[in-house]
Design brief:
The protein has helices spanning about 10-40, 45-70, 75-95. By secondary structure, the protein is mainly alpha-helical. The protein has one domain (about 10-110). The longest helix is centred in the first third of the chain and has 32 residues, at about 10-40.
């Protein structure tokens, strides 16, 4: 396998895409999985957030490796943005678990809530 060398500008673009794009994709993945697991009745919301957060480190690593493995910087940026947008859209479309800050029951004042 031939070794490729990057120009300084290309290396900077790949590094920025890997660090910033990887962080954005991992955050969108975490948000999606934190909502998807409780919605599918697989895990409790607190366990889903913990599981999604731990898995996001693997996703972050995979994005970093993918960005430096691709031949073109533009494709790496486009893929990272597209997958991040897909996870963010899917997370926004899923219902919030009961007790979440954006759940309608969580918006009521504490005094007006009935005891469990």
């Amino acid at each position: 396998m031939a070794r490729r060398s990057f120009t300084p500008a290309e290396a900077a673009a790949r590094t920025a895409c890997a660090v910033l794009g990887g962080y954005a994709l991992a955050a969108c993945f975490t948000a999606f999985l934190s909502r998807a697991l409780p919605a599918a009745a697989v895990l409790a919301p607190s366990d889903a957030v913990l599981t999604a957060s731990m898995l996001s480190f693997i996703v972050y690593l995979a994005v970093i490796l993918r960005v430096f493995a691709l031949r073109r910087v533009r494709r790496a940026i486009a893929e990272t943005l597209a997958v991040s947008a897909a996870f963010a859209t899917a997370a926004a479309l899923l219902p919030a678990p009961a007790g979440a800050p954006d759940h309608p029951a969580a918006r009521q004042p504490l005094a007006s809530r009935s005891p469990p």
